[in-house]
Amino acid sequence: MLWKIIGIVAVVWIALAILGALIKGLFPILVISAIVFGLYLLYKAVSGSNDNNNHVSKL
């Protein structure tokens, strides 16, 4: 029973370590892509185009 608990704790610990490394590595990419997407939406909203096909909500 003790080995089963130690095994579960070890598996959870390894899974959290891998997940933390993935989040730490991918977070800058997520931030950069969110900024670029926000700038794109801002450009589309500010541009003076009167076309009906250029609605921001129709991405």
TrEMBL record:
Identify the domain of life.
Bacteria
Alphabetically sorted, this entry's keywords are: Membrane, Transmembrane, Transmembrane helix
State which residue ranges cross the membrane.
Answer: 5-23, 29-46
Q: What is the protein name stated in its UniProt record? A: DUF2207 domain-containing protein
Instruction: Tell me what organism the protein belongs to.
Output: Nocardia panacis
Q: Which lineage do the record's taxonomy fields give for this organism?
A: Bacteria, Bacillati, Actinomycetota, Actinomycetes, Mycobacteriales
